[in-house]
Design a protein that fits this description.
The chain is an alpha+beta fold and 694 residues long. It is built from 20 helices and 27 strands. The two termini are 32 Å apart.
């Protein structure tokens, strides 16, 4: 057999590779190496110049490798399974008949099935995946850049077996019955994927300028071909399908479908980690550009594509915008003129020297008290009438759902007047807007959206000024969802100016609830961090951080934690709501429930434990992987984990002790037992062994 395999001295090697033959590998199998698996040499079934995906894509493959990691196979059983595989070499892996975490010892094999001729990656990929599907072996071994450890025993006494059938003729990778059966398994898998793709729902846009998005979407779908967009974004065509740039399988998982309306749409079967299109929905040309070119920014997509494809429409929209802006400026100018004329008249009447005493409020306490609003809660015990409340949360935490639910509860209880509530929905899909508008109509509060019915976010600050000056702010409640649509949270000057205007609105008797996002990253303790500059927090009356603290099947629990308060607001407040699929938005709103203090305290403790687990996760993964590879003594375990994750040894030791315990103790990852010479020996609990994922 002339198969040529890439060879490296260990899995960390990045250059200076060599190549070995099947006979070389057979010799290694007859006299296996002895030692820890992690330090053993590795090989790959191709003649490439390196271990990367790019190297593998340009290489020729000479064999299939099957990883029989489950099933507890004996040598006799494996021979029966591979009876039609032609010549092959099979040997037991380092974990053969060894404890694997909490799993009992079992028979684990690697089978190398050489080809009679080498094939390129394009032909190898479906054959390798088909073989893994046919024999129910680990599909990770079918990746183009997957490596395999050479025959190895963890110690001299470890069980080891080898089956050498390399004297038999090698299979033809195309015409042999064995290859045809593997390809048939792959094609059946592809057929299932095709059926899934055709049944996929059409993607719904997540946000946008609803007044003009429709025409731009139609223009984009007419002007662009989905194939051109995919190719331009680095997707590689394989027949009628495409491979995502981030995929390591070599299998074309991106389908192009034609709908009932004759429009082409794209569906991806890749993992979400390797392809942003793999969200379970079908995408038209506009969606592809929205995701691949504009990073999901609907406003930017509509703005740019309008300029590129609908120049005349863009000009008309600009004219409409200028007219709206002129109307607003006219109202403000007229009001300012009246004020200035009144002020000048007062100055002309005053012949006395200027004195700050003219501005003194003394004597007006009673009239001001009459304007002062009662301390009425407009959202549970979180937001008070007449105050400026900011709520920060990560996306999909439930801030919109809970806010609407609490507003409705306050309306139903009679604490606030529905007609005084103005919910500005500026971060939603059109479908989402409609579902929330139906609730607004049902309970009588007002729903506003950018671009709808003449409402413009760029004029919002001026709207607030007019209401404050004309005396129409008193008693009005405005919810901004989300704040970033109304001011630049990263610009200190811009944010400060907005909050000055908002403060004037609340001083005139209005109330505002500002919904904003947290940073992507958490702080050192795992808590969410308010996004943007500190001006919002500095100028608000009340500030909360909202974070998810619990998730059980069908239900999510979240916790409001107070950062700043003026008034008797809750320090903490927890709510739960349903996340079951298929519920209407009204049903989701109705599912929101307030949790009692005891539940809040318990949920907060669970959240703290989750945050600790999140902080410790890199160390847990490094320690778990080291144990899985056979480094089970405390000293060598800590050394191996430190080499692979870069964390300090004391940090790793602290995590090792924190997550050691019985299998039934919540959160414990491994247990410790005493070995020879009183050494601390660690083994993983069942279910804690790391999964192999793409």
């Amino acid at each position: 057999m002339t198969a040529r395999f890439l060879f490296a001295e260990n899995h960390s090697q990045t250059s200076g590779f060599s190549h070995i033959s099947v006979n070389d590998l057979a010799s290694m199998a007859k006299t296996p190496r002895i030692g820890a698996k992690a330090t053993a040499p590795v090989f790959a079934p191709h003649d490439g110049q390196g271990k990367t995906k790019q190297d593998a894509e340009q290489a020729q493959f000479s064999a299939l490798i099957l990883d029989f990691d489950e099933g507890n196979l004996s040598a006799t059983a494996l021979k029966m399974i591979l009876a039609d595989a032609g010549g092959y070499l099979a040997f037991t892996s380092s974990s053969h008949q060894q404890p694997k975490g909490a799993e009992p010892p079992a028979g684990r094999w690697k089978a190398v099935i050489p080809f009679s001729r080498a094939v390129f990656a394009e032909q190898y990929a479906p054959l390798a995946l088909g073989a893994a599907l046919k024999f129910k072996t680990d599909p990770a071994q079918a990746r183009l850049n997957q490596i395999c450890y050479v025959p190895n025993k963890v110690d001299e006494s470890a069980p080891y077996e080898v089956i050498d059938r390399t004297d038999r003729p090698a299979i033809d990778p195309e015409s042999s019955p064995f290859a045809k059966e593997c390809l048939a398994a792959f094609e059946a898998h592809q057929a299932k994927q095709e059926a899934t793709a055709r049944a996929a729902p059409i993607n719904q846009r997540r946000n946008g300028d609803f007044s003009r998005a429709g025409s731009v979407i139609d223009l984009t779908n007419s002007a662009y071909q989905v194939r051109d967009i995919l190719t331009g974004a680095g997707y590689t065509q394989r027949g009628k399908k495409f491979i995502a740039p981030g995929s390591t399988t070599g299998i074309a998982g991106v389908h192009i479908l034609t709908g009932d309306d004759s429009k082409e749409r794209v569906y991806s079967h890749h993992s979400q980690a390797s392809d942003p299109l793999a969200d379970g929905t079908a995408h038209d040309a506009f969606d592809l550009l929205l995701i691949l070119r504009f990073g999901g920014d609907m406003a930017e997509a509509v703005r740019t594509l309008s300029q590129e494809l609908d120049q005349e429409g863009q000009k008309q929209r600009q004219r409409d915008y200028m007219r709206e802006q002129a109307d607003t400026r006219g109202q403000i100018a007229a009001f300012e003129l009246t004020r200035s004329q009144e002020a000048q008249a007062r100055l002309n009447e005053d012949s006395q020297p200027f004195d700050l005493g003219r501005f003194s409020l003394n004597g007006s306490a009673e009239s001001m008290r009459q304007k002062m609003l009662e301390e009425v809660f407009i959202m549970g015990e979180i937001a008070i009438l007449g105050q400026l409340t900011a709520i920060y949360a990560k996306p999909n935490t439930g801030k919109t759902l809970i806010t609407i639910s609490l507003i409705i509860e306050a309306i139903k209880s009679g604490r606030i007047n529905a007609g005084d509530v103005f919910y500005v929905n500026a971060d939603d899909t059109f479908r989402g807007l409609v579902s929330k508008l139906e609730l607004a109509e049902l309970y009588g509060f007002n729903m506003l959206a950018p671009g709808e019915n003449g409402f413009n976010t760029k004029h919002f600050a001026e709207y607030l000024k007019l209401m404050a000056r004309q005396g129409t702010a008193s008693g009005k409640i405005i919810v901004l969802d989300t704040l970033k649509k109304f001011t630049d949270l990263m610009d200190k000057t811009n944010a400060s100016e907005f909050m000055t205007t908002a403060r004037a609105f609340t001083q005139a008797g209005g109330s505002m609830v500002l919904l904003a996002h947290t940073n992507k990253n958490r702080d050192a303790e795992g808590k969410v961090i308010a996004g943007g500059t500190s001006d919002i927090i500095d100028d608000a009356d009340c500030v909360y951080l909202l974070d998810e603290i619990g998730m059980i099947p069908g239900q999510k629990t979240v916790l409001f934690e107070n950062l700043k308060a003026r008034g008797d607001v809750a320090k903490k407040a927890a709510y739960s709501y349903s996340v079951e699929r298929g519920l209407s938005y009204r049903q989701l709103v109705d599912s929101v429930e307030s949790l009692d203090d005891q539940t809040v305290q318990k949920a907060a403790q669970e959240r703290d434990q989750q945050e600790a687990r999140l902080r410790d996760q890199p160390a847990i993964e490094a320690l778990s992987e080291a144990i899985r590879l056979g480094f089970v003594s405390r000293t060598v375990l800590l050394d191996e984990a430190k080499n692979h994750c870069g964390l300090s040894r004391p940090r790793l030791a602290k995590v090792l002790d924190a997550y050691e315990g019985g299998a039934l103790e919540p959160g414990k990852q491994w247990r410790m037992k005493r070995g020879a010479d009183n050494r601390h020996i660690y083994e993983l609990h069942y279910g804690q062994i790391l999964e192999k994922t793409e």
